[in-house]
Amino acid sequence: MGLCWRHLDCSERAVVFAEARRGSSQREIARLLGRSASTVCGELRRGLERGPEGEERGYCPQRGQRTYEQRRSRCRPWRKLVPGGGLWRLVCRQLLQFRWSPEQIAARLARMQPDDPSARVSHETIYAAIYAQPRGGLKAAMIEALRQGKPKRGTRRRTLAGSAIVPERLRILHRPEEVQARLVPGHWEGDMIKGAANRSSVGTLVERKTRFVLLSRMEGNGAEAALAGFTRQMVRVDRGPSGAA
Prior knowledge:
The protein is mainly α.
């Protein structure tokens, strides 16, 4: 027997039924299934079928399965957000009509019923209830009403920033060997150092062979300012000390 206990499945109930019909004892059935005798005893009692007058008719695996499912359903926690319930209608109205976020809905429910925990739910419960619905128009409308109307929870939005905006021929992995190995001077790398709250920035130019560093003043924080600043600095490097402005 394993250390992790598990419930009997349909095939094991069929074995219990066949062995019980043969007259095998509970311990023999338990050894055959690799279970404890108490598990087999409880299953035989759970699936015991009786006639109209109360007489015992023996073990029925279908009855045992139904009894097991009924008892398991009573063990599951009670769901607060059930489609068609009053709390569900309130959440749908606030989400669809007022386009409130689940966090706002959960906070409002807590203020409406401060002394009744059963009348309020968390925002995670609202999210789970929305995405757990079967496919349909209501589910699509509720997901669309969310601040981030993702078809599935946890999926990332695909924007231009997340795609490759650098041409394939200009990517770093396609650099020539003399640039990659720093064999000859004359190849520069640029970067930016931004200040507090991105209100200012300074460009840095590093020569890959000699590690010589130049600082470039930036007039802004965007791509146009970076291009202008680096271009101005590289023009000064090409002119040399005599042609520097």
